[in-house]
Amino acid sequence: MLSPLIESIELTEFRGIRGCRNPIKLSRFSVLIGRNNSGKTAILEALSMLLVDSISTKRFPPVEWTIANYMNYLHGGVDSLIYCYVGKAVINYVIHGERMTWEYKGGGSASIASLKEGPLSRDQLAKLLGFKYYDQALTSIFLLPNDTRFLRELTHALSSKKEWVKVEKSGANTSIVELIDKVVHDSFTEATVRFNTIVLRKELPDGHVIYVNASDLGDGVERVLIYGLWLETYRPKVVLWDDIEASAHPGLIESVLEWLASKDWQVVLTTHSYDVLERLIAVEPEDASIIALKKDSSDILESKVLSLDELSDMLESHMDIRRVVDIL
To answer: How far apart (Å, rounded) are the C-alpha atoms in residues 221 and 240?
Structure first.
């Protein structure tokens, strides 16, 4: 069994989190749960910052969004990276047993350093993650936000000729459609591009072929299709998926969990959904854990890690797992 690339994370004055009572320990397949504003999305964003040395770093290829764009579009500005908008945000990581830190003081710059050996260069960081060059490492950690604007930008970027040849070469245009076919009544054969947009090819019983726009599939299916094409094409080492259940039927959720669990990447998801937790038991990914989060009145984050066996026991006792945060 492969060990997680990122073993733990600890935040200090990052986003709405003033500090962590203990480091948050991650597994190969981690699911974050907690009330609204408990820090779930902030943790995903902090994990995605590992490779960022400037707010002008582009982190969403082929979408030309920088960290500054992301913060402006989703959070109202880059100052939101820092707790109370002033001071210094610090993130501590453990990667393959090596402690690392990331700092942001405002003004557009960031820094990454080993706590034992001093500052790391871009290429030294890339090598720690298993890549020869920094540019290669930039596609090793993908953040999938629950944001319609980003989804539209990604759809447009993937449908360009330059990107679609990568999609076809990876086989993502057929493999992801196989996942979609499991949960819809239609029978699609492949994803393709027509008139500068992504469509699914459908063969009718009489032999006719029609093409259905991705945007007409329903929000949940469209989101899985576009994000699935993205991930299968670029094959990152870490997948960070916010609100995985958004607009998705329980059958689709189970198929996505099975697909994610079948790959060799590290997965960190957030959810508010009982269906996700219930389907997680059915799928039973290797090295999976549920991390319950709760912030106190001083914005200090506390976490409790549950195993799948503990989750299963709670479900069998008819306990509402979403209330587990109340015991922290």
So the answer is: 18
